[in-house]
Amino acid sequence: MGYVPSLDISLLIESSKLKYINHTHQLQVHAFSSSDGALLPGRIFEKIRKGLTHGPVLFIVPRKGYGNALLCANCKNVAVCTCGSRLVVTGKNSDPQCLVCRTQYPDWTCTWCHGKKQYLGARGIDRAGEEISRAFPGFPLLLSFGDVIKTTVENKPALVLATPGSAPKVLGGYGAVVILEGWKFFAHADLRSQERARELFFETAAMASANAHVLVSIDESHPIVSSIVRWNPGAMIRRELNERLEIPLPPYVASAVITGEAKDFTLIAAGLRKAIEDGRLPHEVRVFGPSDEGRNTAKIVMYCPREKRADLALFLHELTRRRSIAKKEFLTIRFDPYSL
After folding, report:
1. Are 331 and 264 in contact (CB under 8 A)?
2. Cβ distance 182 to 224 under 8 Å?
3. What is the CATH class of 253-335?
4. For residue 48, how many other CB atoms are within 10 A of its CB?
5. Domain residue ranges of the chain, discontinuous segments joined by +
6. Residues 16, 338, 214, CA angle at the centre, nearest 5°?
7. What is the pLDDT of residues 174-230, one digit of tens each?
8. Which of 36, 41, 148, 207 sits between 20 and 30 A of 10, alpha carbons compared?
């Protein structure tokens, strides 16, 4: 259950197989764009202070951690380890360290311009907590994320920071809710990212008390703003469905994802394309990949019309059966996975 229907359910609504009953809900929504990279845009402070007079204020932060990317403050190049992975900072007084091999760099120097001044990008909840508590001193700071999730908080003034899905409940609702760096929730690459972002925004807005403000750090022209104001995500969903129909992508087509050891996947992909040419697979089937998934694994994505899903399933079942008889490497096949 949620506040926003998935694309699969929305397609059923658009085709009149389900009826969508929208409840009108008036919210005071304010969007604030940040042009200088500040966590809190300048005009947002007054609304937060007002919210704190009525109870706790909820801040949704995109990610956990402290500084999830280290940049040179001079040339803005991203700091990387000798192994190729990026450097992160895990705490206020911590040295930069590699995200993968954990090599520490106590005397870090930019390899491009040789500058020593650090700039933390991709703020995590710990860093955001420091900045917000400095901006609003005198209020308790409560964090909810990862393995440290609070289920409820008291209805009294406090700064409550949470990552997506970790926001605690409060009796009577929050004095204000704030979604920080809102555009980042829509910037993920997988096919469900827009759907998740819409649900997060509506779920967070629903946690505000009556007459409280919903504050979003995002450009005011972004369609999510007007969707929350109207308490109706329909326009955003219809636009995404139209885009999926043109390409086409799920939910208008069925999908299958094959994963396994990378060494055989070029031949597997070639064999699948040959099967389409020979008529052993429907000609409407599309094959993408293989793509490198890291750790010596690869992935192939296949699309086909929904009415051809059974044909594709039978073919892939036969493929795995023959590979098993030949004692070849095991393949994992998922049909219509949640995300691609």
Report:
1. no
2. yes
3. alpha beta
4. 20
5. 8-64+127-244, 66-123, 253-335
6. 75
7. 999 999 999 999 988 889 999 999 999 999 999 999 989 999 999 999 999 999 999
8. 207
